[in-house]
Design goal:
Blueprint lengths: L2 H11 L4 H17 L14 H10 L1 H4 L8 E4 L7 H7 L4 E5 L2 H14 L4 E5 L12 E4 L5 H8 L8 E7 L2 H8 L3 E9 L7 E10 L7
Parallel strand pairs: 1-2, 1-4, 2-3, 4-5
Antiparallel strand pairs: 5-7, 6-7
Helix pairs in contact: 1-3, 2-5
């Protein structure tokens, strides 16, 4: 996907008024400026930031379209991908979970600068987030699927939709998770990379804990 195709994809799939475009463009500018201080994205992806990061994050939103009311919790948010993108493109409250101090400060600065009143940051490990019921849980480059599910089960219930980009390892991670986890799992192909995939799940529960979720 080229940068022009990425912008076209956003226009096709979202109502993107001028103010939203301005926020997306400002967000990109903030990320690139911050790259002098911390490595937020891979250096090689700078020229492809709309496709590799903005659309790669935004494509998760339609996959969670069936989610009920409630917050979107993004695990290991890092540069705010997908959390900040979700907060820009939707009205859903977004909580980003991040344990690294520099990233926490960065995310809070972005929220303030872009005026994202529905977004917030929890500074700490996923396991220490207070119990909550997320409508959607996302995680991009956070942890292997079995560990990811184990760390965040206290934030979910049977209605929670999980949208988890897993690159080219999606099927392998799903097979590994199936030994310990049950639920309605399926794999969606990424719109930005034909070889990458996203694990989408609902009604996830631990096999060893009957009645969980």
């Amino acid at each position: 996907m080229t940068e022009e195709e990425a912008r076209g994809w956003l226009e096709t799939h979202f109502d993107v008024p001028r103010g939203t475009w301005d926020r997306l463009e400002r967000y990109i500018a903030i990320i690139l400026a911050e790259m002098d201080r911390q490595n937020l994205i891979a250096e090689s992806t700078r020229p492809h930031i709309w496709a590799r990061h903005i659309v790669d994050s935004a494509q998760l939103i339609p996959l969670a379209a069936r989610a009920g009311e409630g917050q979107w919790i993004d695990l290991g948010s890092g540069a705010g991908l997908p959390g900040i993108v979700v907060a820009i493109l939707t009205d859903r409250p977004v909580q980003m979970v991040e344990s690294r101090r520099k990233r926490i400060d960065f995310l809070n600065d972005v929220i303030a600068e872009l005026g994202l009143s529905g977004a917030s940051v929890f500074g700490g490990r996923v396991e220490t987030v207070p119990d909550a019921r997320a409508a959607v849980i996302s995680a991009r480059a956070y942890a292997p699927l079995p560990k990811l599910l184990a760390s965040a089960m206290h934030l979910s219930d049977e209605k929670t939709i999980w949208v988890l980009p897993k690159g080219r390892n999606a099927q392998n991670e799903l097979e590994a998770a199936s030994r310990s986890w049950q639920g309605a799992f399926h794999v969606e192909r990424s719109v930005t990379d034909a070889d990458s995939a996203i694990v989408v799940a609902q009604a996830v529960r631990s096999v060893s804990r009957k009645g969980r979720g």
